[in-house]
Design brief:
It is a single chain. The protein is an alpha/beta fold and 283 residues long. The protein has 9 helices and 13 strands. Strands 4-1-3-2-5 form a 5-stranded mixed beta sheet. The radius of gyration is 19 Å and the shape is globular. It starts with 10 loop residues before the first strand and ends with a helix.
Length: 283
């Protein structure tokens, strides 16, 4: 019989993704459903890779991470994948779901994926460590772009960052197209970041094809908080997370921020709050 999630032990949350061509994404999704029966969270599986957020006791997560590297079904595709781990006070999720998708993150431009070869999208740009990022965003010739939703930006951001003010990630390409000529004419480099790095990796190669000099924060905000004990020197506010914890501070600790505070003033704020509560109740 499947093992039920154990709520008696301290809970931890891991976030991970990998852009890697999967020959049989359906088989990968099926095996992940078997391996996550003692966990909660959500994993997206597509021909371009996987994207997941999962919670459980430390020992169960350790075993799951080992399985991703060692299980024969995955054919070594996930060896070396980075996991961002944080402790939980609130249980982030109430159930486990593995979704088979067309893409692990929808960008709005057909054919764009770091897994593509021979199409001009073979790499995603220059990924820089948190230590290098700190120096990079202080440079006068760098435009720092927050590659997230506006409500996330308002809750917390790198101090020098610009909010593109796009309601969905699929609207981000239009923002870049509108501003790329000015950035190039003024000799600006572009540094962008998101929560875990996946949005930047998806859009980075496409932006380089536009002639932009693009840099992205390795592992995103969560990796910056995990790697930099003094992250508050560069960061204002909190980081929104799409689970029941709602927001984390620079020490990866849950805050007291509520959904109402996050979505205040958003045109679709009431819908977002209702949806979050429906999903939690349905879980």
């Amino acid at each position: 019989m499947p093992t039920k999630p154990d709520n008696s032990e301290p809970l931890f949350h891991i976030a991970f993704y990998a852009f890697v061509p999967l020959v049989d994404a359906d088989a990968v999704a099926s095996r992940l459903r078997e391996l996550t029966q003692a966990l909660t969270g959500s994993i997206l599986v597509a021909p371009e890779g996987i994207n997941g957020v999962v919670a459980g006791p430390a020992s169960t997560l350790d075993a799951f991470e080992r399985a991703l590297a060692d299980d024969a079904v995955f054919a070594g595709n996930f060896i070396g994948m980075v996991f961002k781990r944080s402790a939980c006070v609130t249980a982030p999720f109430a159930r486990m779901k593995v979704h088979r998708k067309k893409e692990i993150v929808a960008f709005g431009v057909d054919g764009v994926s770091p897994t593509n070869t021979g199409t001009g999208h073979a790499d995603s740009g220059t990924s820089v460590s948190p230590q290098v990022w700190r120096d990079l965003i202080a440079q006068d010739d760098v435009v720092v772009i927050d590659n997230r939703n506006s409500f996330e930006y308002r809750l917390g951001k790198f101090r020098s960052a610009i909010d593109p003010q796009v309601p969905h990630f699929r609207d981000f390409p239009a923002y870049v197209r509108a501003h790329a000529p000015v950035w190039k004419a003024s000799g600006k480099r572009v540094a962008m970041y998101c929560t875990g790095g996946i949005r930047c990796e998806k859009s980075g190669a496409w932006m380089r094809d536009l002639g932009l000099d693009v840099y992205q924060l390795e592992g995103g905000i969560l990796n910056y908080f995990q790697s930099m004990p003094d992250a508050e020197k560069d960061w204002d506010g909190e980081c929104f997370v799409f689970d029941n914890r709602i927001a984390l501070d620079t020490k990866l600790q849950e805050t007291t921020t509520t959904l109402e505070q996050v979505y205040e003033g958003e045109p679709d704020g009431e819908w977002r709050i209702a949806r979050a509560r429906r999903l939690d109740a349905a879980s």
